[in-house]
Design a protein that fits this description.
The protein is mainly beta. Helix content is 10%, strand content 30%. A hairpin with a 5-residue loop joins strand 16 and strand 17. The longest helix is centred in the C-terminal third of the chain and has 13 residues. The chain starts with 8 loop residues before the first strand and ends with a helix.
Length: 426
């Protein structure tokens, strides 16, 4: 889900919101938070397209703004226990990002705390508002909301998506699907009075109808596999993330390797602001169906800050797989930071088709800091496919478009070789 900065986001810090959760006799009854959102869209569920991260969970609430443009939506809840959390707002007719707010930017409720700013075990609460552009000025002036997301005029159908990465329970010890808290409660408000009104019906989002363009690239069979900055996409992008992407065809007798220095990752909330990135991962997806089937993130990969990490990829039906596994294990015992990822080309997807040998790679950085010297956010994108040219054909400035040239040791470059070459190499 590529980045798209078509977002319009206003965070108002002045004043305390006076909106209260009151309702008239004919007002709505508050539904439980979980019942208002979709079922969990699991990054590792092998259902959602556009190469989701396997360590993420998503939930969407979609409604018809053309019928409810006179309402403000309010989201109240407790900050989840996870590496990253955000609200993203999309034009559901085309999947483009039109707003959102990241965890560290969310002002906590009065008397509460934002645990993405200060490390704490205290439960922090928040309130976020989604307001149509035509109502935003008056609503802001009247109620002084702390966290305001504005939906631009002309949008007919809105999808709000909550994202969590690496969710845990309240202790941080165990994985938890919801980050140890309930999903935010959604209520609808009259923008003039602040009182609750009927919540818009949750309708079906287009996020479930991912389409993919399946095609063969001549570069898939080249020995080198360069990485490029992903171009802007209009398919429900995480507008806080940049991606390096690459793709290749890996045959049963081949091995792909690449190495680079990953972005350093902060360990405390106090270090989030100004960090090089909040999170990184390597994801492997099928070029045929745009779903992800393998991933390593910073928490689970074998790497050391400031040193090169190595990645070895081969097919499960590689006749030398056992030897490749043995060599990787030996290298790790010798102190090398090596990671093996095995691609099952014969595995059947939910459509009953084999994943195949064409693999797409994503190196993901959440909240990359453009002030960091080696930030991928400072690169220039290349077009992925236009029917004539391939990514490598769109390169006009290698110093900014090809990762291993633009970023030096911080940029990956894939190299394919036979299994025999890999086993004989140092």
């Amino acid at each position: 889900m590529y980045k798209n900065f078509m977002a319009v986001l206003t965070v108002a810090f002045a004043g305390l919101s006076v909106l209260t959760s009151c309702s008239d006799d004919d007002g709505p009854e508050a539904a439980g938070p979980g019942s208002q959102w979709s079922a969990t869209m699991r990054g590792d569920g092998e259902v959602i397209g556009a190469y989701p991260d396997l360590y993420s969970n998503y939930w969407e609430y979609t409604y018809d703004l053309s019928r409810h443009g006179d309402k403000v939506l309010r989201f109240t809840g407790e900050f989840p226990h996870c590496r990253y959390f955000s609200f993203s707002v999309y034009d559901d007719d085309n999947g483009s990002a039109i707003g959102g707010i990241d965890d560290v930017s969310i002002e906590p409720d009065e008397g509460s705390v934002n645990p993405f700013r200060v490390t704490t075990s205290q439960a922090g609460r928040f309130t976020v508002y989604l307001v149509p552009e035509k109502l935003a000025g008056e609503f802001r002036d009247r109620f002084k909301p702390r966290n305001l997301c504005i939906v631009k005029d002309g949008v007919r159908k809105v999808s709000v998506m909550v994202r969590q990465y690496l969710g845990t329970d309240a202790t941080g010890a165990d994985h938890d699907e919801y980050g140890g808290v309930d999903l935010p409660l959604i209520t609808a408000l009259d923008p003039a009075t602040g009182k609750e009104v009927a919540l818009p019906e949750h309708i079906v989002s287009n996020v479930y109808s991912a389409t993919s363009n399946v095609y063969i690239l001549k570069s898939d069979d080249r020995r080198e596999m360069p990485f490029f900055l992903a171009p802007v996409s209009k398919y429900y992008p995480n507008n806080s993330t940049d991606y390096l992407y690459a793709r290749t065809r890996l045959r049963h007798d081949s091995v792909l390797t690449f190495s680079f220095i990953p972005a350093p990752i902060p360990q405390r909330a106090e270090d989030y602001a100004g960090a090089a990135a909040r999170y990184w991962s390597i994801c492997l997806g099928s070029a045929a169906d745009t779903r992800s089937y393998g991933s390593l993130c910073d928490r689970n990969a074998c790497w050391t800050d400031g040193e090169k990490a190595e990645f070895v990829i081969c097919l499960r039906n590689n006749t030398r797989l056992a030897d490749v596994e043995a060599k990787v294990e030996r290298l790790r015992k010798e102190g090398r930071r090596v990671n093996l990822m095995v691609w099952d080309s014969e595995k059947l997807n939910i459509d009953g088709k084999p994943l195949g040998e064409y693999i797409a790679f994503m190196y993901r950085n959440i909240l990359p800091n453009p002030e960091w010297q080696y930030s991928i956010s400072n690169m220039l994108p290349t077009e992925y496919f236009d029917g004539v040219k391939e990514p490598v054909d769109h390169v006009t400035d290698p110093q900014k478009q090809v990762a291993h040239i633009a970023l030096g040791d911080y940029g990956p470059l894939g190299l394919k070789m036979s299994a025999v070459e890999f086993l004989d190499s140092l």
